[in-house]
Write a structure and sequence with these properties.
Shape: elongated
Order of helices and strands: HHHHHH
Largest sheet: none
Number of domains: 1
Helix content: over 70%
Number of helices: 6
Number of strands: 0
Structural class: mainly alpha
Distance between the termini: 31 Å
């Protein structure tokens, strides 16, 4: 396959798979840690209105969704990319970081969560994914005798 097409596919696959992981975790988060009574988590208006009722435990699943979505998406992009695997992983991290910044801007959240989420869930996870993808590739190389 043409390396340019493969790199384009890497970006698309990373975004799609990472988004699917993120949304899957968000969708099941209410079953794992139920939201406060009376808070409508299905709309941004409902979240904004009930955000003051959220406890720290309610922010665990969104953080995991952001971190794992970025990790898996960046890993997929790095594995599919023909060249510059770490750069593609970090590119996916930057893409999801932009989404995280938009989320913080749109939905009010405690400052501590915004800082933790934006500083730990995106670029560090993308870097880890790039390292995992490139170290796996190196470890499977045949060493001449």
């Amino acid at each position: 396959m043409n390396p340019i097409l493969r790199n384009i596919l890497a970006v698309v696959a990373g975004i799609v798979v990472g988004s699917a992981v993120n949304m899957s975790i968000i969708m099941m988060s209410g079953a794992v840690i139920p939201p406060p009574a009376g808070v409508d988590t299905t709309t941004s208006e409902g979240l904004s209105a009930g955000m003051h009722l959220f406890e720290p435990k309610h922010f665990l699943m969104p953080f995991l969704a952001h971190a794992l979505g970025t990790l898996v998406g960046a890993w997929v992009a790095a594995m599919v990319a023909a060249t510059h695997k770490m750069k593609f992983a970090l590119g996916i991290g930057v893409f999801f970081l932009a989404g995280g910044i938009a989320s913080v801007w749109i939905l009010p959240s405690p400052v501590w969560f915004a800082v933790v989420d934006l500083s730990l869930a995106y670029l560090p996870m993308a870097c880890l994914a790039g390292l995992l993808a490139t170290s796996r590739r190196r470890s499977t190389a045949v060493i001449p005798a």
